[in-house]
Amino acid sequence: MDKIVVLVSFVGLLLGTAGSNLSDDVVVLGELESLEIEGDDVELFDYPSWTSERGSKVLVNVDGFGAVGDGVSDDTQAFVNAWKQACSTPKSVFLVPKRRRYLVNATRFKGPCADNLIIQIEGTIVAPDEPKNWDPKNPRIWLNFFNLTGVVFQGGGVIDGSGNKWWAASCKKNKSNPCKGAPTALTIDSSLAVKVKGLTIQNSQQMHFVVSRSDSVRLSDVQISAPGDSPNTDGIHITESTNVVLQNCKIGTGDDCISIVNASSNIKMKTIYCGPGHGISIGSLGKDNSTGIVTNVVLDTAFLKDTTNGLRIKTWQGGSGSVQSIRYQNVRMENVSYPIIIDQFYCDSPTTCQNQTSAVEISQILYRNISGMSKSENAMKFACSDTVPCKRIVLNNINLEKEDGTVETYCNSATGFGYGYVWPSAECLTSSDKDLIIKPTQEVELAKPSPENLLHSEL
Ligand SMILES: *[C@@H]1O[C@H](CO)[C@@H](O)[C@H](O)[C@H]1NC(C)=O
Ligand SMILES: *[C@@H]1O[C@H](CO)[C@@H](O)[C@H](O)[C@H]1NC(C)=O
Ligand SMILES: *[C@@H]1O[C@H](CO)[C@@H](O)[C@H](O)[C@H]1NC(C)=O
Ligand SMILES: *[C@@H]1O[C@H](CO)[C@@H](O)[C@H](O)[C@H]1NC(C)=O
Ligand SMILES: *[C@@H]1O[C@H](CO)[C@@H](O)[C@H](O)[C@H]1NC(C)=O
Ligand SMILES: *[C@@H]1O[C@H](CO)[C@@H](O)[C@H](O)[C@H]1NC(C)=O
Ligand SMILES: *[C@@H]1O[C@H](CO)[C@@H](O)[C@H](O)[C@H]1NC(C)=O
Ligand SMILES: *[C@@H]1O[C@H](CO)[C@@H](O)[C@H](O)[C@H]1NC(C)=O
Ligand SMILES: *[C@@H]1O[C@H](CO)[C@@H](O)[C@H](O)[C@H]1NC(C)=O
Fold this sequence. Notes:
Elements: H1 10-15, H2 22-33, H3 41-44, E1 58-61, E2 70-74, H4 76-88, E3 92-96, E4 101-103, E5 107-110, E6 118-121, E7 124-126, E8 141-146, E9 152-154, E10 158-160, H5 164-168, E11 184-189, E12 192-197, E13 200-202, E14 209-212, E15 215-220, E16 223-225, E17 236-239, E18 242-252, E19 258-260, E20 264-274, E21 280-285, E22 291-305, E23 309-315, E24 320-336, E25 338-343, E26 361-374, E27 378-383, E28 390-402, E29 408-412, E30 414-423
Parallel strand pairs: 1-3, 2-4, 3-6, 4-7, 5-8, 6-9, 7-10, 8-11, 9-12, 10-13, 11-14, 12-15, 13-16, 14-17, 15-18, 16-18, 17-19, 18-20, 19-21, 20-22, 21-23, 22-24, 23-25, 24-26, 25-27, 26-28, 27-29, 28-30
InterPro entries: Glyco_hydro_28, Pectin_lyas_fold, Pectin_lyase_fold/virulence
Enzyme class: hydrolase
Family: Belongs to the glycosyl hydrolase 28 family.
């Protein structure tokens, strides 16, 4: 198959005055390329070793509070009592011992706690599996951590939501079921400076891990898994949070691997494996005419396999707010239906959604070094609102193909530009600029050294 190297010159963009502005584009590109999210990677690995410093730590073992750990006995009260003790004692370690299964009901673990609390989960915490008996006072939570500062979760253990019966009871599985929400397995809410390292979360009733209303949260080596057909089982969901770093996470579920929603900014994702699932998403935003704002998001190094979407931004008609300053780079796709997609007509509803004049504004989105295989023809899809166009979409070093057939870029009301190698070509991004001059032979000089033209097949 022939590939076209499209080198859009900035001179061309300058002449195409309709929707482009040289100084703007250079500024945008510069900003996107240098977009740095606070969060020192080195610091990520600076986890306290509670065993080697046991002398100075106070061990609070749930077994000491009557937990049985046989997977059958109700250990909720033991966890609640152990939490009271651990939370009120400086330098304590809340220990869930290994090789045991603790059955625990919906529980709120509230802070503030004394300094330097470590939550050491080595064994398995399992949820009761019967939706009918779930605590009616806590319909949407299972393990909920609230108002913590400077807490570390670690230990290599497992959090298992026993979601099977919840999935079967979902209206997405069976239209005659009522549509109601199910619990989130693990929530970190209204917290500051929390680190989570090396935990497995699986088979959640609904979302697996929610970070809400929090600042400075670092997740690393977190594994999340649920069947590809389990409904609404998002992996990591970030809402109203800032300065969140996700690193080395492996996620496969029945919904978004990662979803970033309203009032979230400075989010960095590094080395993410996603699949099966619905991809790595910003949104959905703007449902029921609401305002949604997400800014400064970087994804660097990801591998997506067998997902319905790759890099997705999804917003509802009628919303307001914005998605701005997003950079995706070094991403490899395999068997992904829509590798790059902006969908401003998102409608996850049994009834059709009417088009409206208002929409969440999308601008300054950079896709760089993205390669792999698309399952659909629309390897790149920019479906933007007629009244609120997507602006300043920048593509660089894109190589997306389809095993059996051609790929193309779909644009509706989207503007931006590509440079370097871009396949499928994305001329439709600039098609509104009738005067745009594309000079296929002219190399672009950027402020930074131009990245190599070609993509590589290995991550
Ligand atoms: C181009 O952008 C610059 C800087 O934002 C602004 O001052 C100028 O008015 C813009 N020109 C046009 C034609 O929009
Ligand atoms: C949360 O913790 C802070 C101290 O860190 C305390 O002042 C505040 O009252 C707590 N909020 C709630 C709702 O418990
Ligand atoms: C856990 O939930 C079950 C079922 O609702 C209930 O019978 C039991 O009392 C709960 N345990 C605690 C400690 O609240
Ligand atoms: C859907 O739910 C209804 C009512 O609960 C039940 O009778 C029916 O067997 C279910 N269908 C499937 C395919 O599970
Ligand atoms: C979005 O976040 C802002 C700021 O936290 C909040 O005021 C607003 O209610 C949120 N919107 C929705 C739809 O949750
Ligand atoms: C959203 O706004 C549109 C247009 O003003 C209105 O028709 C619609 O009923 C609103 N929807 C909701 C859920 O408020
Ligand atoms: C492609 O991904 C879909 C899920 O989206 C999966 O069902 C299918 O088996 C995958 N195909 C291959 C060839 O792996
Ligand atoms: C909404 O607008 C888009 C873009 O113009 C169009 O493709 C789509 O059919 C419209 N949807 C409805 C429900 O009118
Ligand atoms: C593009 O990806 C390759 C490997 O996939 C990497 O070596 C190169 O540094 C990347 N370029 C940029 C600009 O990140």
